Every structure is written in structure tokens, then in C-alpha cells.
Amino acid sequence: MVLDSTNTFTNCLMMSLMDVSKIFSLLQPKEEDEEDNEHGQALNQAVSSDDVAMLTELLSQDSYQRCINNRSGWGIPVTPLRTAAAHGHLRCLELLLKHGAEVDSLDVKAQTPLFTAVSGKHLDCVVALLKAGADPNGSPHNNCSPVLTAAREGDVEVLRELLQFGAEVDVWPKVPEWASNATACRGPLYISAVYGHLDCFKLLLLHGANSNYNCKSDKMLARIKQPKTVLEMCLRYGCGVEYIQLLIDFGANVYLPTLIIDKTTKQNEAVVLLLKERGEIHFVRHFLINFVGRKITGWRPIR
Fold first, then answer.
1. Closest residue by Cα to residue 130 from 113, 106, 154, 155
2. Nearest CA-CA partner of 24 in 82, 107, 102, 101
3. Helix, strand, or coil here: 72?
4. What backbone torsions phi and psi does residue 163 show, to the nearest 5 degrees?
5. DSSP helix/strand/coil, 71
6. Under 8 Å between Cβ of 171 and 163
């Protein structure tokens, strides 16, 4: 038995190391001569300064054109396209794309230019990258995604663009199986609720987000001990009654959450709404009499 557990852990660890090795192999810089390094730095400098005229002049020369996807810069080397996305320099970004810059090139964190633009809330750059064919889900080698980032930041306009270009609404952090010990899938619906971004929450539901677990993968759910529904997490984190109502309207199973009600329970209106949807009238009365002791807006005592 011990041997089986040891083998399982070793296999998972090996798989994790293989994933890490694959990421770093993708990011290994190509052998470049000194001139190519200088050309790459010149391109990045022009982009950083948002000097479109200079960038146009450089890219008109073959020696610079072939360095368009080279990584350079102090600290973490990045491509010119990544620099443009980070700074929100749209004209430079569009010029680089026009000259064949790799739209989904990765940095050392396995982040794409789109991910960087989303993080910086540069809507115009996000749209330009998506129209150029950027993967709206970002890199599979990154633990986060553009949608999760937009949902966390409450950037509903960026989120809308990502979803219109086919981004997955039920994504979750891509942790290895042996490291998964979460109680919820922590997809974008969950994240937007916890951070209090109601507009993002509603938009995700409108685009088909799973209203129970924000996850459609049975395999993923099986990895989690006693998974918590979005409803349950909304109650736990004190989300308003409007979140509960939206989940109910979009078909959430009101019988899945486990309700533990005592004198410390908050979100009285949300709890009453959920109990009413369950048809548990006797629990509603008990809750109102013993734990609330005050009038709840929009609620009339049951006779």
C-alpha cells in the first residue's frame, strides 16, 4: 500500500517536472549574434517610447525585421509585441502584428501578449490581439488565464471581448492533480463573486457559465473532496442577494449547498431566498424567529 502511494506521488512529481521542463524549453532563447541582440533591443526601445516612426523605419530593414520576435531587455527579456501590450501602445502593437509578430509568443512566466494587455486593462490592445488571432484562453502552460484576470479585476468590457471571441467561461487554474486540494473550482464565476463584480458575474452566466460548480469536468470535480457550489461560496463570502437570485434564475441547483445556520449567519435575505426556493417554509419561519429578529426588506411573514 505504501509502495503504491509512493509510486503515485513519484509519477505525479515526474509529470510535474516534465511540464516545467516543457515550459522552459519553449522559452529558451535562440542563439543570436551580437547584432541581432542590438536589433532586438532597438525594436523594444522604439516600442517602449511609443515611437511609431522609428519602429516603422527599423522594420523596413530586413536585419530588424528578422528580429521581430527576439526577446531582449533588462531583467526579464520580452518580445517587442509583449512590450507594446504591457504599455498599451496600440499603434506599435498593430504595426508589429502587420509585420508578422508572433501573436501568442510567451514570456518567462508563460504569459501571452493578450494576457499582458488584459492585466494592464488595455482594451484597445486586447481587441487588436484577438482580431489578429490571439488565443482568448491564453497559454495552457500558465496557471491563470485572461478570463480569470478580467473577472478578478472587474473589467467587464475586456471580459466581454474575450467571451465574444470564444474564451472558456468555466476555466480554472491549471494545477497538477497531486497539488489539487481546493474545495471549489475557482473559475471566473467564483472569482467575480468573491471580488464583488456583479456585472462580470452576470455576463459570465449569460455566456453559459455553469451555475453550480463553474466547472463542466466530472474529472476535475472528482479530484476535489466535498466540492462547494458557487451558491454556497456566495453565502460564505457575503455576496448580496442579487448573486443568489441570478444563480437561481440561471438554473443553479438550490438543493446542492449545505446550509449551516446559527446566530453568526449573515446574509439573511440571501438565506431566506434560498430556503424559499427549496420550499422549506418551516426553516424560513425558524430562521426568522430565532436568528433574525428584525424585518427583512422585501419579505413578508408566512401565514
1. 113
2. 107
3. strand
4. -70, -35
5. coil
6. no
Domain with CATH 1.25.40.20 in the chain: 167-254
What number does CATH give the domain 167-254?
1.25.40.20
Residue-wise pLDDT for 159-197, tens only, equals: 999 999 999 999 665 655 545 555 456 789 999 999 999
The CA distance from 145 to 216, in Å, is 17
Number of continuous H segments (helices) and E segments (strands) in the chain? 17, 0
pLDDT(68) > 80? yes
At 25, the amino acid letter reads: S
Residues 259 and 244: their CA atoms lie apart, in Å, by 14
Q: Letter for the amino acid at 36? A: D
Q: Which of 71, 73, 74 is nearest to 28 (CA)?
A: 71
Pick left, alpha or beta for residue 196 (phi over 0 → left; psi -120 to 50 → alpha; otherwise beta): left
Amino acid at 207: H
Calpha distance 233→192 (Å, rounded): 11
Residues in the chain: 303
Q: Per-residue pLDDT tens for 103-119?
A: 999 988 899 999 999 99
Dist CA 102 CA 111 (whole Å)? 13
User: Residue written as cell 524549453?
Assistant: 25
Q: How far apart are CA 264 and CA 198, in angstroms?
A: 25
